[in-house]
């Protein structure tokens, strides 16, 4: 029995029994899969009905072929439509998995990376060699780690937001005026990403490192951003990203989140009542501009003991809203 791999599809041909017609049917199956891939390459994306009509076959047959192609990584379903995945694209995925695993592990041997990515050690070594040649990883002894090249890329991306200089000035000022931790974040891929932070004299040290990517629903920063979005977009984000609890106070129901966002819009700022970290409160205001596609927010975070009464209800919110307003106004004049 011979085994052939065609366009990522594995099919067995019963060469010792051609008279039973299995080989002919298998050839036809592969040809139909080829045709589906060719059609997707031609139009970019298509639904089951469109493919069935274009190929003059039943929708159930199209479903079967697409299921096989999806299992083999040759097509991907996005928003109800199917897209062709080229072999070149498919081969990029292990690169990202290795980089992500090194980010989590800090440094690791090929065997450790192979275990983390569920790939063979030989495959991992091949990718590591290419990554090292491109200077994206460095080897120290028997271990590899991500290189500082990512720092260069990150710095360039940070300044490409168009408002980073303005953000630095206002966040530093907000930290000094509040004596607390001041943060600025933007939304990217429906996540909250910390872009810059500054510490006032009394600021507590937290895990809010620059570049931190976290869900939007449990922080004041994230809720300030979500409050700028239409309800259907918020629901879509909640469906895809989930509303996982981080503390006992975290909002985990979408209707409760929508109610909180309505309250955020009414008062002009968002609050985090120990929803992200026990014992910590936060006040945030959104920062948006018609000329900037990035939704952002600025905040002050402090221990609950210092976020009470007048300070929490008026003083800090006024400082935060003022800083947000300055960034918005100045961003209009950024060329």
Give a verbal description of the structure.
- This protein is an alpha+beta fold.
- It has 3 domains: 2-85, Winged helix-like DNA-binding domain superfamily/Winged helix DNA-binding domain (Arc Repressor Mutant, subunit A), CATH 1.10.10; 88-147, Orthogonal Bundle (Arc Repressor Mutant, subunit A), CATH 1.10.10.10; 159-331, Beta-Lactamase (2-Layer Sandwich).
- The protein is built from 12 helices and 12 strands.
- The protein starts with a strand and ends with a helix.
Offer a concise description of the structure.
The chain is 49% helix and 21% strand.
Write the layout of secondary structure elements.
Layout lengths: L1 E5 L2 E5 L8 H22 L4 H8 L3 H13 L3 E4 L2 E4 L2 H19 L4 H8 L3 H13 L3 E4 L2 E4 L2 H11 L4 H15 L2 E8 L2 E9 L13 E2 L5 H7 L4 H11 L12 H14 L2 E4 L6 E10 L2 E12 L5 H23 L4
Helix pairs in contact: 1-3, 2-3, 4-5, 5-6, 8-12
